[in-house]
């Protein structure tokens, strides 16, 4: 049984590159992308609900989801760009550049949605659906590429510390 509450550290780990834009080693870009992902993904169901029910409430919900998704996406983009240009090895990965370009395309789709819905969210009709469907698809693409960077290449994550040697005693569990 363990005598301390330390996190178990495996003997061999994949290499990671710690995020440069972090607070107490917690990377900010992965934290900031949560709300834009949620808002821009829920945009499509809100547009479908508006077209199905005809209730202007859903058009207003879609407007706010689009606006908050764009604003949060811009914040996440700034944090991601800072990480990309502060981490040299990140710029060498094709996945990082693909994630960057796809993210810019996603922000352009979100900006087009805000522009489309600006005068009257309820007057957009099927045009809103033509904007929100590719937006939801791009959220998946950008998320997949970002996940490849984090989980596949270990870039911009929490980062590992060196394993501390513990005194050998027969009462401890082996590391997984």
UniProtKB/TrEMBL annotation:
It comes from Luteimonas wenzhouensis. The chain crosses the membrane at residues 33-52, 64-87, 99-118, 138-159. Keywords: Membrane, Transmembrane, Transmembrane helix. InterPro entries: DUF2231_TM. This is DUF2231 domain-containing protein. The keyword Transmembrane helix applies. Residues 25-157 form the DUF2231 domain. It comes from the Bacteria. The keyword Transmembrane applies. Pfam families: DUF2231.
């Amino acid at each position: 049984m363990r005598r301390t509450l330390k996190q178990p550290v495996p003997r061999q780990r994949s290499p990671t590159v710690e995020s440069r834009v972090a607070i107490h080693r917690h990377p900010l870009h992965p934290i900031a992308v949560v709300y834009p992902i949620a808002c821009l993904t829920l945009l499509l169901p809100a547009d479908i609900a508006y077209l199905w029910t005809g209730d202007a409430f859903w058009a207003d919900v879609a407007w706010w989801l689009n606006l908050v998704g764009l604003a949060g996406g811009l914040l996440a983009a700034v944090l991601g760009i800072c990480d990309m240009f502060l981490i040299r090895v990140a710029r060498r990965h094709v996945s990082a550049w693909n994630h960057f370009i796809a993210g810019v395309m996603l922000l352009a789709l979100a900006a087009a949605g805000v522009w489309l819905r600006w005068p009257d969210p309820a007057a957009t009709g099927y045009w809103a659906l033509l904007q929100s469907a590719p937006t939801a698809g791009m959220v998946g693409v950008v998320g997949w590429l970002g996940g490849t960077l984090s989980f596949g290449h270990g870039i911009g994550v929490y980062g590992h510390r060196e394993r501390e040697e513990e005194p050998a005693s027969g009462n401890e569990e082996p590391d997984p």
